[in-house]
Amino acid sequence: MDLSGALLAVDAGNSKTDVALVGACGTVLGAARGGGFQPHVVGPARAVEELAAVVVAAARQAGLSDAPRVEHVRACLANADLPVEEEQLAAEIAAYAWGRTVTVANDTFALLRAGLADRGEPAGVAVVCGAGINCSGVAPGGRVARFAAVGRISGDWGGGGDLAEEALWCAARAADGRGEPTALARDLPAHFALAGMAELIEALHLGHIPRARRHELVPVLFAAAAAGDAVARALVARQADEVVAMAVAALTRLELLDAAVPVVLGGGVLAARHPLLHDRLVARLAARAPRAAPRVVTAPPVLGAALLALDHVAAPAAAYARLRGHFA
C-alpha cells in the first residue's frame, strides 16, 4: 500500500482510544479502538506502549503487517493536561517512528477541531464533559486558552465522576437524616438491586461494586432530575453552570466574549442533550456571551484529530469532505 503523505490520527480518552490511518486524500485506510489512556496512572512509557498495540491494529486493518510509517502523527490525548505532559508524550510517541513529525495536544483540541468549519473559521471554544470536564479555545492568530484540569486542586468540578460522587453524597445524607430528602436515596441502590443506601455504601466501600461502575449512576441522576427531584435537579443545574463558567472564562481570556464564535460541546454528558442540562446551559451562555453559538458534536473525536492532521499538511478541500463523510 502506498502510504506517501498518509497521516496517523489518535484520540485517546479516559475510557477508550481510537486510532485512524488516513490517506492524503482523506480516505480512512484503517482504524482500531483500544482501552483508556491513563499516563498519570501507569506512566507515559507504559501508556504509549499500550497505544502502540492499537496503532498496529489499525495498520493491520489497512493491510499492513506492522506499524505504519506516515507523514505526520496527530495525537489528541486525555490526561495530557499540561504542556510538559504533552512534551513527554510527544517524545515517547516519536520514539516509535510512526511518523516523520509528531504533534501532541490535549483531547479537547480534537473536539474543538471537529466542531469548526474546515475553511474560514479559525476561532472557537470547546468544552468536553464526559468522565471529567475540560475546556480549550483558540483565537484568530492561534492564541490558545486552556485549563490545567487535573481535579479540585486546579479548580475543576464536573463530568460523570463528580456527578456520581455528588449524587452518592446527597443520597447518603438523605438516608441518614443529615440532608434533604431525595429520590436518589432509593434510586441509586435500586440500580444495583440493593435495598438501600447502607447496603450501597458497604458494597462500594468494600469493593463489591468496582469503582469503575460508579459512572452508571449518572443516567440515574438525570432520570431523577427529569422526574422532578429537587436535589437531582440542583446537581444538573450546577453542571450546566460549570460548563458555562469554563466557556465564558476561555472566551474572555481570548477576547472573544463579544464575538460570533462557536462553543463546541462534547463528551458523553453533553452529547446526550439531556433537556434540563442542555436548555439551562444554552440559556446561561446566551446571557453571558450573546453572540456565541453552542454546537453539540457527536462525531467520534478521532475525526478532530484527523482534521488537525489534514491541516498540518494543507490538504485540499476534497480531503476534508471525504474524511467527514466517513465519520458522518
Identify the CATH homologous superfamily of the largest domain.
ATPase, nucleotide binding domain
| Tally of contiguous helical segments | 13
User: Level of helix content?
Assistant: 40-55%
The H/E string reads EEEHHEHEHEEEHHHHHEHHEHH
As laid out across the biggest beta sheet, the strand order is 3-2-1-4-5
Span of the ends, CA to CA: 25 Å
Shape: globular
| Top-tier CATH class of the largest domain | Alpha Beta
Examine the secondary-structure arrangement and name the CATH architecture of the largest domain: 2-Layer Sandwich
The fold-level CATH name of the largest domain is Nucleotidyltransferase, domain 5
- Which spans of ≥5 residues are poorly predicted at pLDDT below 50? none
Task: Give a short account of the largest sheet.
Answer: 5 strands, mixed
Question: Could you describe the 3D structure shown?
Answer:
The protein is α/β, with parallel strands linked by helices and 328 residues long. The model has no long low-confidence stretch (mean pLDDT 96). The protein has a 5-stranded mixed beta sheet, sandwiched between helices. Strands 8-7-6-9-10 form a 5-stranded mixed beta sheet, sandwiched between helices. The longest helix is centred in the last third of the chain and has 24 residues, at 230-253. The radius of gyration is 21 Å and the shape is globular. It is 46% helix and 19% strand. The two termini are 25 Å apart. It contains 13 helices and 10 strands. α5 packs antiparallel against α9 (230-253), α6 packs antiparallel against α8 and α12 (302-312) packs antiparallel against α13 (317-327). It has 2 domains: 7-107 and 301-327, ATPase, nucleotide binding domain (Nucleotidyltransferase, domain 5); 121-297, Nucleotidyltransferase, domain 5, CATH 3.30.420.
